[in-house]
What we know:
- The protein is α+β, with helices and mostly antiparallel strands.
- The chain has one domain (2-267): Ribonuclease Z/Hydroxyacylglutathione hydrolase-like (Metallo-beta-lactamase, Chain A), CATH 3.60.15.
- The strands form four sheets. Strands 4-5-6-7-8-9-10 form a seven-stranded mixed β-sheet, with helices on one face.
- The chain starts with a strand and ends with a helix.
- Helix content is 20%, strand content 28%.
- Helix 5 packs antiparallel against helix 6.
- It has six helices and 18 strands.
Amino acid sequence: MTHYICATCGVQYPDSEHPPQHCPICEDDRQYIGHNGQQWTTLDTLLGNHHIVVKEVEPNLVGIGVEPRFAIGQRGLLIQTDDGNVLWDCITLIDDDTIEQVEALGGIDKIAISHPHYYSSMMEWSKAFDAPVYIHEEDKEWVQRPSSMVTYWAGETLTLGDGLTLIHAPGHFDGAQVLHWRDGADGKGVLLTGDIINVVADRRYVSFMYSYPNQIPLSAHAVRRIVNAVQPYDYDRIYSAWFGTVVKENAQEAVRFSAQRYIDAITG
């Protein structure tokens, strides 16, 4: 029996003798089936030709990614706090060396994931560190490997620890969430967003989409709802889903300006 992994989105599935027939996450119109059809792989296969990179992004924030790029290519972010460490978003790979490196950084007390495209091998990470996974209840249907370690929360915000707040920001998915880290950026505040609020090539700004690969925009209403959800929080910096996708300063103004630019463009 094997936990098969979708080669396009990188999400791991329940133990089975044969690969699943479908990946619902990739069949959804926010994602896509690979050009060669539905393909499956395994963790052991991936570890034969990929490796994990662990590197500091800023004080008390460590990036965890995969090289060469696999599937969507996102990296996770480990926030180190006196109240326990939180892993934000997840990657498909995990190995003993990485577990040792993360344990040396204080381990993982909680895991939170922005939306289903980054569920990856979240249960492998949860099991390795005995860490609960926090997902908004609006995205429960997308969890492909159910577990008692998943906590489904409801409402608009959830405190994960001192200075760490999950914020419900529906749009890309109904249960999409971002994480506010009060003490990041030298106390100016950081927003970790996956691609719910996505840092664009001109890293002064961000954007919002229903589907990135299929280029389906969000409505003006959805964009306003996301902006309103994060408006009460102070933050000077945004990290989206990949290494280097950072609005380094004035991030609140970047969100405000970018949202208005986006809404002007789609409404004419």
